[in-house]
Amino acid sequence: MIALPIPLFTAAVLLFLAMRAAFIGETPRMVLALVMLCAGQSVLIVLNQHYGIQVLAPLQPVTAGLIPVAAYLTFLITAQRPLHPWPDCLHLVPILAIALAAATMSSLLDWLLFLVFCGYAGLIWIRIKGPAADLPMIRIENSDKAVLLWRFVAFALIGSALGDLGIGYAVMAGHGDLKPVIVSAYSGLFLLVIGGLSMSETLNRPLADQDQTPEGGGKTAPKPVEPQVAAALLQRLDSYMRESQSYLNPDLTLRKLARQLGVPEKQLSAAVNEATGENLPRYVNRFRIDTACRLMAEGAPVTSAIYASGFNTKSNFNREFLRVKGQSPSAWLAAHGST
């Protein structure tokens, strides 16, 4: 029986996920590009490490360095803002540095890859610190899940960087024969993690979100909001939510809500945090849960109440219902259902 190299299995799984997502048509193209890059890297590893096609060896570190850059740009374009020629073209610099090191200073290559992987993991981590609502292009319902997803991606990038150092150490210690094993193990695991997580429906672009113009280019840091200003803005937001019922839109994002109110995204997010101690997703979901409770009390089936109140999935509804009401929907219905 012929053993299938782990990276080849990884490539097959990632290609299947990418083809399936492309067929469905809801996954952003940048996400598909990241998954295809991970699959291509797995194929390169197989050809180089398992079948000895050394002509492709110089390409492997360059495509490896593309992965953390592509992961970070995917994060930006799905969660925070569109890409711009400037300054986003600067992300080509690490790739050029890796290509140069591969051609002239191979002894520095492992450390350079380590720094690039860890550096971009750090950039992702920094941008998801704080409230989940700082991801203006993610559906409000999915903001918490998106933060968790990108934290896993950041950890996977760091894990991949440590794998590169492990390879370098094995070679220095005279165990170069272990290199294919280490490469197969860490690449198969971490490329699959990065690619698989990127296929999550959490990153699917909200419908009818055509205007992707970023607020202020995404460069300015959020300014603190005075308590009086936060309270006034929250009162205005409360009134608007009750009158417009925008929370019933399952594709509602921070960007859309801020534009409806005519206020900066970061100011709105900061005001909700300052005035309520919660992030915007939890604030919006309280309106949705109250609406679902009213519908269920009037006799609507739970499933109908879930989608009529603005939720996309039953799992999110159940989690938020337990958080807001302190009990499951079935237990709440037993105590408050229609009579």
UniProtKB/TrEMBL annotation:
Gene Ontology MF: a single term: DNA-binding transcription factor activity
Question: Boundaries of each HTH araC/xylS-type domain copy?
Answer: 235-335
The UniProt keywords, alphabetically, are: DNA-binding, Membrane, Transcription, Transcription regulation, Transmembrane, Transmembrane helix
Q: Does the keyword DNA-binding apply?
A: yes
Where do transmembrane segments lie in this chain? 6-23, 30-47, 59-77, 89-105, 148-172, 178-197
Q: Which InterPro entries match?
A: Homeodomain-like_sf, HTH_AraC, HTH_AraC-typ_CS
Give the source's domain of life in one word. Answer: Bacteria
- The protein in question is named AraC family transcriptional regulator
According to its UniProt entry, this protein's organism is: Roseibium aquae
Taxonomy, top ranks, is: Bacteria, Pseudomonadati, Pseudomonadota, Alphaproteobacteria, Hyphomicrobiales
